[in-house]
Specification:
There is one protein chain. The chain has 95 residues and is mostly helical. It has 2 domains: 50 residues; 37 residues. The protein contains 5 helices and no strands. The longest helix has 31 residues. The chain is flat. One of its GO terms (molecular function) is DNA binding. Keywords: Coiled coil. InterPro entries: Homeodomain-like_sf (IPR009057), RD_transcriptional_regulator (IPR051839), Transposase_8 (IPR002514). This is Transposase.
């Protein structure tokens, strides 16, 4: 069985944004861009969440919140170490 056309992420995100901003029916947009309506429904489910809404997390317990904050601290420390190494590398390189 042959697979259909492949679409890149940017096209998918732009299509979902177009649907959301213009409040058009998915079936109409599907006909306009030449994509199956069921495919667009899947894209809406995957990419339709607003980033601001995803960023706000609700925690079921203080322990879950603590774990999330500790993970964020670890990630930030790792990023800082990478930036420090890059700073030293570029400071030493001849110009």
């Amino acid at each position: 069985m042959a697979r259909g056309r492949q679409f890149d992420e940017a096209f998918k995100i732009e299509t979902v944004k177009y649907i959301s901003e213009n409040n058009k029916p998915i079936a109409q947009v599907a006909r306009e861009v030449g994509v199956n309506a069921n495919t667009l429904h899947g894209w809406m489910k995957k990419y339709g969440q607003q980033p601001e809404i995803k960023a706000v997390q609700t925690f079921s317990s203080e322990a879950a919140e603590l774990r999330a904050l500790q993970k964020e601290i670890r990630d930030l420390k790792e990023e800082n170490e990478i930036l420090k190494k890059a700073m030293h590398y570029f400071a030493k390189s001849p110009r």
